[in-house]
Design a protein that fits this description.
CATH topology of the largest domain: D-Maltodextrin-Binding Protein, domain 2
Number of helices: 19
Oligomer: single chain
Radius of gyration: 24 Å
Structural class: alpha+beta
Strand order of the largest sheet: 2-1-3-11-4
Number of strands: 14
Distance between the termini: 39 Å
Low-confidence stretches: 1-47
Helix content: 25-40%
CATH architecture of the largest domain: 3-Layer(aba) Sandwich
Largest sheet: 5 strands, mixed
Shape: globular
């Protein structure tokens, strides 16, 4: 062992000497605030703290990265600056491509179908993680691989984060470096429109209030090019009027099994969402909304995001989260939109902290440079200055940073680069929260924080379902849900909604739902027994 240690020490010293001769650069360690990134300039550069000293980065590489979000106006200028830093640090540049959120369901599978170069791609428990693993779309990331090529991320993330990524005991994605946010979102209302229909801010307190507001607006603003909620296949009201209105919780968003915190606070009774009374009631409400003209009849073909439509005054409402929604809201207010974000959660509502795999990045199995992709991801997640540039653009222009509180506020050009508008999968462990004096948003965050479920109250961290025993049934079930959920969410069946719903439930049962749920409960029981 002593000989081996001596040999490793000699090899490391030799690598460091080569790094100096080859002008290889170093990365700065994560700090509590953005700082100048240390770069090498020949053999005099300090390399002792270089996490990549034992990796050969002598060959320049380009990493092709895909994310799913709206492309910022200033992305070209920002990426030029970011790539200067990334190249100086790890001899790598990034080609960044955006899949618009409204086109995610069609374009994401095409990107992953192969043919084009992809080295990193955004994924999450709600964004094709399990589906792509089942299709062998993502590279397995062993502990040895992660420790070697992502040393800073490996040192940063807790064991719980990696456990949440496991599928059949294996890791296929790199989660963001923090889960210290709430995924729960609230409705944003254009109050100038709401007030026309008698709804002042003090009259919007519950989901019933929101329901009545949407029905009151209906299509009465259609002559002005606006609808109450301009929905689409990608942007329905399922989160607001199904999940949040009933406090339904699931940290595995792709398998459709939920718990109701309000009626089942110990989470002992899982149910399949689409055959529950919750979903039936939701489908009937959406049919009522559609009949009232809350969205246009051709909404199913709409490809615009709800935020874009709200900004363009084509939708009187949209939704935002409470930790960074203020960024968009202030931008809308600057454009003359009287936007307010509401907390309408029911009494007794308790939020579950977001899963680490609520956002992350994966390396496609067909990437030809997975090692360099991993190093690149590790660097941009860990070097705070580079992260801040990618996440927020240029300080002083796109955002203003308050070091004392680790918060950011909008800069004069914030509309061209919204902070944290796309970089969710690479969040730094010390990422800043948006600063706001908005009493409504601060009160909502306080409410969520004070009532948040404790980690030990949610018994399913790390539980993943193995679909193999019911793969045939799951193929039918998932196809039926994909085919029908948007239609129910857009009220497309009108007066026939209840009959169509019953037919849908029967198709699910015929497709093997009972067998699927029996297997799901079996694996759940085994997991709970093993983790007592």
């Amino acid at each position: 062992m002593k000989k081996l240690a001596l040999l490793l020490a000699v090899m490391m010293m030799f690598s460091l000497l080569l790094a100096g001769c080859n002008n290889t650069t170093t990365s700065s360690a994560p700090e509590s605030k953005p700082a100048e990134n240390s770069t090498a300039s020949g053999g005099d550069t300090e390399t002792n703290d270089d996490p990549y000293a034992n990796i050969d980065l002598s060959k320049e590489e380009t990493v092709v990265m895909y994310v799913t979000a709206t492309e910022p106006n200033a992305i070209k200028e920002v990426m030029e600056a970011a790539n200067e830093k990334i190249k100086a640090a790890i001899n790598t540049t990034i080609d960044l491509y955006f899949i618009p959120s409204s086109e995610r369901s069609t374009k994401y599978p095409l990107v992953m179908a192969g043919g084009d170069t992809v080295d990193l791609i955004y994924t999450a428990n709600w964004c094709y993680y399990k589906e792509q693993v089942e299709k062998s779309g993502f590279k397995e990331l062993t502990e040895e691989f992660l420790q070697t090529y992502m040393p800073q991320t490996w040192a940063t993330l807790p064991e719980a984060a990696w456990k949440e990524t496991l599928i059949n005991g294996k890791i296929y994605m790199v989660p963001r470096n923090t889960a210290a946010i709430f995924p729960d979102r609230g409705m944003v209302v254009n109050m100038e429109v709401a007030e026309k229909y008698g709804y002042t801010a003090d009259k919007i307190k519950t989901y019933d209030d929101l329901k009545n507001l949407l029905l009151a607006i209906g299509d009465n603003e259609a002559s002005n090019g606006m609808y109450a909620y301009y929905a689409s296949q990608s942007y329905t009201l399922q989160q607001q009027f199904l999940q949040y209105a009933n406090n339904l919780i699931n940290n595995q968003a792709s398998d459709y099994v939920y718990y109701s915190q309000l009626t089942d606070p110990k989470f002992e009774n899982p149910f399949f969402l689409y055959t529950s009374d919750y979903f039936k009631d939701y489908a009937l409400l959406m049919a009522e909304f559609a009949a009232a003209g809350v969205w246009p009849s051709d909404a199913i073909s709409n490809t615009n995001s709800i935020s874009t439509l709200f900004a363009n005054k084509q939708s009187a409402t949209c939704h935002q989260n409470y930790y960074n929604g203020i960024t968009n809201i202030e931008g809308w207010r600057e454009k003359g939109i009287k936007a307010e974000l509401f907390d309408t959660y029911p009494e007794g509502y308790r939020a579950l902290r977001d899963s680490f795999v609520g956002d992350g990045m994966a390396i496609p199995s067909f990437s030809e440079i997975p090692e360099r992709a991993a190093v690149c991801l590790d660097f941009i997640k860990s070097d705070l200055e580079t992260y801040m540039l990618l996440a927020g653009g240029f300080e002083g222009r796109h955002y203003i940073y308050d070091e004392a509180t680790n918060t950011i506020s909008n800069g004069p050009e914030s509309a061209d680069y919204v902070f944290d508008g796309w970089a969710w999968g690479i969040r730094h462990k010390d990422f800043p929260w948006p600063k706001t004096d908005d009493e409504r948003i601060n009160a909502a965050n306080k409410h969520l924080s004070e009532t948040q479920l404790k980690d030990e109250e949610w018994p399913y961290w790390g539980f993943t379902f193995d679909y193999a025993p019911v793969s045939a049934e799951w193929a039918v079930i998932s196809a039926l849900v994909t085919e029908n959920s948007a239609s129910f969410g857009l009220g497309s069946f009108g007066a026939n909604t209840e009959a169509e719903y019953e037919a849908f439930v029967q198709k699910l049962k015929d497709g093997g739902l009972d067998k699927y749920m029996e297997e799901w409960n079996k694996q759940r029981d085994e997991f709970l027994a093993a983790n007592k």
